[in-house]
Amino acid sequence: MRILLWHGWLLEGSGSNVATARVAEHFRAAGHDVLLLCQERHPERYPWIDAFGEVDGRGPSELTPQEAKQAEGRCVLLRPRIGGTLPVFVLDRYEGFEHVVRFVDLQDGQLETYLRANVDAVRAAAASHRTEIAFTGHAIPGSTIGARALGAGRYVAKIHGSDLEYAVRPQERYRELAGEGLRPAKAVVGPTNDVLRRCVELVPGIDPLLRVVPPGVEISAFRPRPRAEALEEAARLLDADPDIARGRPSELDAEVERALAARDADALDQLADTYDQSVPEPDAAARLRTLAKADGPIVGYLGKLIPQKGVELMLAAQRIARHDAHALVVGFGSDREWLAALASALERGDADALQWLRERGLPIGDDLRTTDGERDVVFTGRLDHRYAPEALAAMDVQVVPSILEEAFGMVAAEGAAAGALPLVARHSGLGEVGAALEREIGHPGLLTFEPGERAVHNLADGIDRLLEIPKAERDELRAAVSAFVGREWTWDRTAAGMLAAAGAA
Description:
Blueprint: E1 2-6, H1 15-29, E2 33-37, E3 51-56, E4 59-60, E5 64-65, E6 74-80, E7 85-88, E8 99-102, H2 108-129, E9 133-137, H3 138-150, E10 155-158, H4 162-168, H5 172-182, E11 187-190, H6 193-202, E12 210-212, H7 227-239, H8 252-261, H9 265-271, H10 284-292, E13 298-302, H11 311-320, E14 326-330, H12 336-348, H13 351-359, E15 377-381, H14 388-393, E16 397-400, H15 410-417, E17 421-425, H16 428-441, E18 448-449, H17 455-467, H18 471-488, H19 491-501
Parallel strand pairs: 1-2, 1-9, 2-6, 3-6, 7-8, 9-10, 10-11, 11-12, 13-14, 13-16, 14-15, 16-17, 17-18
Antiparallel strand pairs: 3-4, 3-5
Helix pairs in contact: 1-19, 2-3, 3-4, 3-5, 7-10, 8-9, 8-12, 11-12, 11-17, 12-13, 15-18
């Protein structure tokens, strides 16, 4: 079958990015002819992409072939020519774009220019490809682009969650665009009942189109492993990564301390612009090797370091929990230097610095009583899917403390597959994932915590609940959640579910 996938951004770094990449790869492996439209700048990093080029209203450019792993099908990546402005839901850095702007901040003219460029590209690409079915990402802009470029019933709209909370809910113009795109779709798929319920609240009348299709996990990569072995393997892979030289140098820790002492928020923000956040930190391998030799459990986080993800809750909870545990923070984003400042203030028990950080917006609560003990905090920078399986396998407890609503929480499923016990906020699709894992192991409330004003304390209690379980029993629970993910949440099942929603399976 000739399948077109439209996704507005990259193939790494967020749940929707990764989901798009994995689905494309599995469609190709199943023998389909896949045309993937996205803004990925480095197709050479993906061994399942057979060729790449660009596309606009005049049609695809000449393709550049590349050596790809053997498969029954084929995947071609085309990058729509949309100019120098990239609309996003959450601000981040994107290679190759002069302006990165939140959807809610776009002027109407900018929005129409962006939509028109994508519509022209999709229409031309689909005609050249002779597309039989298309999947478009996000209620906006994907479904709107699908409706305008392909027509009613020619595409399946995929809901990811960020589209709803960062654009459709805040602004009426996006509710109108979402309605324009979702109502004519052949189906509307989403990863959980929760996110589809929220979608219907914002865009009434689409109930008959809804289909739950959970994302998957690459279970051949995300699997349980001994902690030391996993960390040593990640370090070995990092040793061979030439890009790490561009990452955050350890010398910036001293700059963070100076900015914190001076209560200089601008200085902290500016430090994040002095290095490449998209790569691992240069000392990550050495830090992981040190952690591999350390005693005691590891409580970890993997994901974006941005305010919406609540990483500060984990750092504060690690310090007030009864059980000693090291913290492993894997990720990148605008909060990196603020989290380093918080980790330093918590380690010293510096009440004045903690109060300043609260006043600057870190929701860590007012009644923290930090404890001493062996509680190191290890930052690694971004570890993509070359390293993430090893990092997650090393965690005893994987915390997913998102503050805002999530569609699914794919990283929690990846952690569970790798043998980490997820501890997730009890809300939205994330809570739905936690509840499914709790039902599987027969322990209601063990893998979730209540968000809100006492989130730090509730999270600390959750960490203690898990770490006080005897190791042998904890290992049984780790094996059980890993096996559940391997049965229920795989990319093969996701790909099959999407085709079924399209009426093609």
